[in-house]
Amino acid sequence: MNRGLRFLGVVLGVSLAYQAGCGGTSTPTPLVEVPPGQVELQEVGEMYRIFIDDNKRPARASKDLLKYAAAFTFGSMALQEKEVVVFWGASLQPDSTTVLAYQKAVPESGGVVLLQDGQTVKSMTAQEFQSAPKAGSVR
To answer: Which positions make up the signal peptide (predicted)?
Structure first.
């Protein structure tokens, strides 16, 4: 009986070692580089959408969105530090190519913008931004 338990212990040990990762190689998943400001604009878009859902109207100022600050740290900090400019009072439009918000440096040097669908973040040059349609008004 003692010999049978020992054999069972060896089989279990080998099995556990094999399942723990012995054998086979794995390739690490490459990290995706996110353009500066993308996360902030995505969060601003999400706060804007939630505000509209909660209030049945578009946000009119950054203070409208800051009540969601706890859940959207990067977006709320960007609004408070005025790193993101928003065209306030605009409704969200699916499949829109109109700019809803942008990094403050975009008009001079290009960067990322949030489109009026509230979800799409894309890079624009300063020239593309100047000719792009804009939503609402900046206040």
So the answer is: 1-20
